[in-house]
Amino acid sequence: MWLWTGWKLKRALRRYGRDRELEPLLRGDWRSDRDLAAFFADVEERLHGEEITKLRQKQAEYLALQNQINPHFLYNALEAIRTDALLADCPDIAETTEALATFFRYTISNVQEDVTFSDELDNTENYFTIQRCRFGDKITMELQLENEKLLEARMPKLILQPLVENAVGHGLEGKLGQGTVRIVVENSDRTLFLRVRDDGVGMPEEQVERLNAQFAGDGGTAPVAQRGGIALRNVNSRIRLMFGEDYGLHLFSAVDVGTECCVTLPLRFGEA
């Protein structure tokens, strides 16, 4: 039996050396030798896994190519609208359209990029320009910076704007009269504190406690349906995945007073 199995194996290997085809080798009848059968089954499984991985990579490349094509159409369309607005002497529309194009370009391109707080602030100001087209003078945004150097502090992309969007959509939109979003940036020796405060409708204590528990990892599988929790949880999850559980997001709020969303990040400067 061993001689017969050895002869079959040698013949199969010679055929592979001639034709460079694995299929006959893998599909051969090796049941007479359990070790060989297990070996070739394992090889086949690994090759199949590699094929699936390559296929997924190709699908990802295809989707990435699609995402590269679609934004160009969007940018060109927005630029055409901006040009028409300028020709029609509608500077407000032109400004909003330009802000929207710049916002989309920043948001779509290389989302894993490491950026400065200044980059995040520029993107957030574009977002606020777009929102003022809807809300007018009802909403304002202020910046309180502990020192100018913090403009160059590095952080993951798309941290600030979702916090401001949450403050506008869930804090100020439902408020009667004017509302303000205040961005406060401070630091200790090793930590950057990014606070986004609004003087909007606020939240009850039990809701704040539930959200903070989810941000901390307790009950993390429960849905976050209120107060823009999905966007906030996305920000919190990305920070904790990148920097660990010592960093992340925490909420403070009181009904009819407002809400503060505090993000802690490691204090970093220099190139990404």
What attributes characterize this protein structure?
272 residues, alpha+beta, Heat Shock Protein 90, five-stranded mixed sheet, two-stranded antiparallel ribbon, 8 helices, disordered N terminus
Q: What is the strand and helix layout of this fold?
A:
Blueprint: H1 2-19, H2 23-26, H3 34-87, H4 91-108, E1 114-116, H5 117-135, E2 139-145, E3 154-156, H6 160-172, E4 179-187, E5 191-198, H7 205-215, H8 229-243, E6 248-254, E7 258-266
Parallel strand pairs: 2-4
Antiparallel strand pairs: 1-3, 4-5, 5-7, 6-7
Helix pairs in contact: 3-4, 4-5, 5-6
Average pLDDT rating: 79
Structural class by secondary-structure content: alpha+beta
Number of helices: 8
The CATH homologous superfamily name of the domain at 115-266 equals: Histidine kinase-like ATPase, C-terminal domain
What's the arrangement of strands in the largest beta sheet? Answer: 2-4-5-7-6
CATH architecture of the domain at 115-266: 2-Layer Sandwich
